[in-house]
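Supplementary Note 3. Input sequence used for the single-chain structure prediction.
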Amino acid sequence: MQARFFDAGEADDAGRWDAFCRGAHGATFLHSRAFLSYHGSRFLDRSIVIERDGQWLGVIPAAEHPADPSIVVSHPGASYGGIVHQGRLRGEQMLHALDAACARWASAGYARLQYKAVPHIYHAGPAQEDLYALFRAGALRYRADLSSCIDLQYRLPVSERRRRACRKAQGAGVQVVQGRAHLAALWPVLADNLMRKHGVAPVHTLDEITLLMDRFPEHIQVMAAQVDGAVEAGIVLFLGQTVAHAQYIAASARAYSVNALDLLFEEAIMQASRSGKRYFDFGISTEDAGRTLNAGLAQFKNEFGAGGVVHEFYELNLKGAGHASE
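The predicted structure, written as discrete structure tokens, is reproduced below.
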């Protein structure tokens, strides 16, 4: 088993990578080169291909840490990364795969690996051998974010407060609409919402999210709530095989006054269920690398019938660390 760096300049490699990810157990469109390449030259790509006799066994999206060239991250431009495979890296084979990848990064001069594990809800089938391999190699969990997620087959009870809020929104004439035509109207609402509450701008600019929607029309969806014909709240959903994930959530003061977000979420949850998704994920409610929980935000999400899913982050010393296969 060998590990080599992905050749970002080789079109055949890029096409083969994306085809491989489409058949992988734990991959989503965030693992694809079509997604990762939208960053342009923002990151130095250090992605790995695991192969044997020319046959691809697994891939690991990764790049050099933008602030520390001694660290390689899987992946700084995505919510999660990790080793993905099509079933050939189960059990002991995953231990050898992690060893090979770490040896390749170490030989290139990297001292540490930061690994963003794919949350289990995104797996088409059980695929957590990587977590065991990280444990065997001596990796330490340095961050944990808490997300709120509805299992659409076993939804927990919805609070009466959320039910009343939906009725209030309906009585106020809130209309739920969807489609990329509403994106431009939603983005100023989102930008104002994030700046007002968190002092930050959206991770993606309007141009970037438009580009991503062009590349992934089946995987990115916009839903908005209109009050008197104006967009006052909205959600940008990232759709995987098993999950509808609320990547962006925004509401104006007017939207909050009529509980427009409640009605919008309820429609998005129902739509995810009708489309055959297993989970509806509201996203994380943690800040400061997981050390602070926004309890009010988590409670709001959980009152829709959600429970907790942890996003795990591990760090591994590549210099002198143990081998997973030992």
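The chain has a mean pLDDT of 93. Residues 208 and 315 are 30 Å apart (CA to CA).
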